UniProtKB/TrEMBL annotation:
Cofactor(s) needed: pyridoxal 5'-phosphate
Keyword Transferase found: yes
UniProt name for this protein: Cysteine desulfurase
UniProt record similarity statement: Belongs to the class-V pyridoxal-phosphate-dependent aminotransferase family. Csd subfamily.
Described purpose of this protein according to its UniProt entry: Catalyzes the removal of elemental sulfur and selenium atoms from L-cysteine, L-cystine, L-selenocysteine, and L-selenocystine to produce L-alanine.
Keyword Transferase: yes
EC number(s) given by UniProt: 2.8.1.7
Keywords: Pyridoxal phosphate, Transferase
Pfam families in the record: Aminotran_5
EC class: transferase
Organism: Flavobacterium sedimenticola
Top-level taxon: Bacteria
GO MF entries: cysteine desulfurase activity
InterPro entries: Aminotrans_V_dom, Aminotrans_V_PyrdxlP_BS, Cys_dSase_SufS, PyrdxlP-dep_Trfase, PyrdxlP-dep_Trfase_major, PyrdxlP-dep_Trfase_small
């Protein structure tokens, strides 16, 4: 069982007032709040060991390098990667997806197929469209049903020897659907396709096991898992990372450089050009340790309670419709109230201290599917409470009265 009050005390921002009201932070899908250990670790890095890494023989450079590489091992163990060099530091999910999509340009030819899902964030659509434009490959979309679940029978039909890569999120940011990625990966492998899993929304809620999933790539962002912004992870199977060309050229990703030819550094450095986000990399390890101390089983169980409680309470509001009713769902609720624009509700409840996201959530095709401009999205984390949900529900009722 989680001691929520003790956990909340770890997050200084949660005791703040916003617009004169206690903050109710339900925009965790956009970014998570940071515990004091993470905030302290950022300051400690700059106060005590700030130096460039993998370059100097001096003591600070060595300390910073050791801390950065220790964090890589923390993340390796967290996601159960076979080797630490399969864990690449990136600036975030978007960077990771672009690195892989860019690499596939060297492997695809006209007529090859790339499968994305109808549930994707723009970050997992646009880089693949750009890849298809460059190579003449064809983008195909795995459709979804009215509950926001991917239609597996349609996926089966789309898979063929022409499919070179399948790219799908583990959890949808807009609807909260948890996709059956393990089964989808196995099916893709039967036709020889690689699979990238966008774990941006999954990693705050669960501990991915990349070897058990057998995914070829798994990407996520540090800022959604209590870490800083500007840091993320691209996991890739060694065979794939060796096969793909580097994404960017520059310092630290080379073995030798002459004006005639450059040879590349070994993994993981081949994909880590330039001075990285050193503090971010180190502190991502701190964030992952913090979450593991809270425990992902505890997190999942508690967040599911919040989801069920909020769903039931929200549905008591007349005219409220929830988008995304998948059987397997995480603690995200997207909804609208008859005839009221989501921005109007979002703006009014912000005045009451409540932070939710409104709009298309960088997932316009999902909004198009439902023929709506956007939704109000409340996304809960393990530090939220049922009392906060009550505050939001009352605020929504008030906003509804004002607007109708
Ligand atoms: N979704 C949201 O409010 P970056 O921006 O690179 O850290 O993550 C991009 C991204 C990719 N895939 C999924 C499934 C995501 O949810 C996100 C980020 C945030 O839903 C901000 S748009």
């Amino acid at each position: 069982m989680l001691d929520i009050q003790k956990i909340r005390a770890d997050f200084p921002i949660l005791s703040q007032k916003v617009n004169g009201k206690p903050l109710v932070y339900f925009d965790n899908g956009a970014t998570s709040q940071k515990p004091q250990v993470v905030i302290d670790a950022i300051a400690r890095y700059y106060q005590e060991i700030n130096a460039n890494i993998h370059r100097g023989v001096h003591t600070l450079s060595q300390l910073a390098t050791d801390a950065y590489e220790a964090s890589r091992h923390t993340i390796q163990h967290h996601i159960n990667a076979k080797n630490a060099y399969e864990v690449i530091f990136t600036s975030g999910t978007t960077h990771g997806i672009n690195a892989v999509a860019n690499g596939f340009a060297a492997l695809l030819k006209a007529g090859d197929e790339v499968l994305v899902s109808a549930l994707e964030h723009h970050s997992n659509i646009v880089p693949w469209q750009m890849l298809c434009e460059r190579t003449g490959a064809v983008l195909k979309v795995i459709p979804m049903n009215d509950k926001g679940e991917l239609i597996q029978a349609e996926y089966d039909k789309l898979l063929s020897p022409k499919t070179k890569i399948v790219t799908v999120n583990h959890i949808s940011n807009a609807l909260g659907t948890i996709n059956p990625v393990k089964e989808m990966i196995a099916k893709a492998h039967q036709v020889g396709a690689a699979v990238l899993i966008d774990g941006a929304q999954a990693t705050p809620h669960l501990k991915p096991d990349v070897q058990d999933l057998d995914c070829d790539f798994y990407v996520f962002s540090g800022h959604k898992i209590c870490g800083p912004t500007g840091i993320g992870i691209l996991y890739g199977k060694e065979t794939w990372l060796r096969k793909l060309p580097p994404y960017q050229g520059g310092g630290e990703m080379i073995a030798t450089v002459t004006f005639e030819k450059t040879t590349y550094a070994d993994l993981p450095h081949k994909f880590e050009a330039g001075t990285p986000n050193i503090a971010g990399g180190i502190v991502l390890g701190t964030a992952v340790d913090y979450l593991n101390e809270v425990g992902f089983d505890n997190i999942a169980k508690y967040e599911h309670e919040l989801l069920e409680y909020a769903t039931q309470k929200l549905l008591e509001i007349e005219g409220l419709q929830i988008f995304g009713t998948a059987e397997a769902k995480t603690s995200v609720i997207s909804f609208n109230i008859n005839g009221i624009h989501p921005y109007d509700i979002g703006t009014i409840i912000d005045k009451l201290g409540i932070a939710v996201r409104t709009g298309h959530h960088c997932a316009q095709p999902i909004m198009d599917y439902f023929n709506i401009p956007g939704t109000i999205r409340a996304s809960f984390a393990f530090y939220n409470t049922k009392e906060e949900i009550d505050v939001m529900v009352e605020a929504i009722k008030k906003a509804k009265m004002m607007l109708s």
